[in-house]
């Protein structure tokens, strides 16, 4: 028992010295906000590199519902092996370090929370792990061991941490402090600096343009919508060749959509079902199936959309309402817009005088029945055979064409 207390005292002394050594140096700040995914981890790790290059502490301000387990593991390992002190801080009031966020919080050399924040609910299911009972138990045990190692490394392991994984328990900031899982509670950054013995200037490491773009593209809902819009654009171009713009925009959306899918763990069965749905929609337009193919396409598209991101945590998945809305819009898109374009392509081309049949014009002179005179149609002068007596100024209708001569009759 005395040995354990001695270890805690030594850890506290080492922690104080590690922080106080840099107490007068700059403190670099990054924000771990939103879902933890590869682009967000890359941004935080860039902040760590900046802090290490200046031999200054890194403050990670956390507000996350969780995220991808593998991305979290990459980040935590880097934090545990950082060459500078790392302070993790759940802020502002109302923020959380849920699921994967708990692992990051515990990885800080100093861990703190603002009043009114909470942490926990770190069961592997919340990371998007949908497994059989045996495999789920293995993954859960692995997550428990990982969190235990992190907390032990930082000298703040308590058995209750296991329940935060196995039973998805959640604790408030006060409860976390009472159980010894964090070092202190700080209402704001100023109080945090005071308690952590930090006095240097603060430098925020903001996401650069590339990181901001990737953070947007890596959002599953954005990726899903871009993928669908890409197909819309290409198919609209194919149904109405020559417009060019829909094809270019569709291609760009498809590239960005597939790039986003490359970042995220996806179910390829979902991709296959969505592609199959588009095939059924095209066939419905070309073949009269009385709606059977369209119905099959709608079902395939909806199921594919649900399966596409089933490996993701629930906080990352597109909502069912969005998927349903996109499915309805997709069905209407094919049955109305694309169908109209394809039907237009099937019509025989009409040009020159043939294209004037049914158009109206004005007689430029008196034209007796059976005679030829001049009429003005579509801004052009045409020779016309009168099928009845026509007076100058009468409105006429083109009812036929003979060579380059129109056949016209007077509109009653």
From TrEMBL:
Domain NfeD-like C-terminal residues, every copy: 353-410
Residue stretches spanning the membrane: 213-235, 242-260, 266-283, 290-309, 321-342
Membrane topology recorded in Swiss-Prot or TrEMBL: Multi-pass membrane protein
Domain NfeD1b N-terminal: 27-188
GO MF terms, alphabetically ordered: peptidase activity
A GO BP annotation: proteolysis
UniProt superkingdom: Bacteria
Protein name: Membrane-bound serine protease, ClpP class
Organism from which the protein derives: Thermosulfidibacter takaii (strain DSM 17441 / JCM 13301 / NBRC 103674 / ABI70S6)
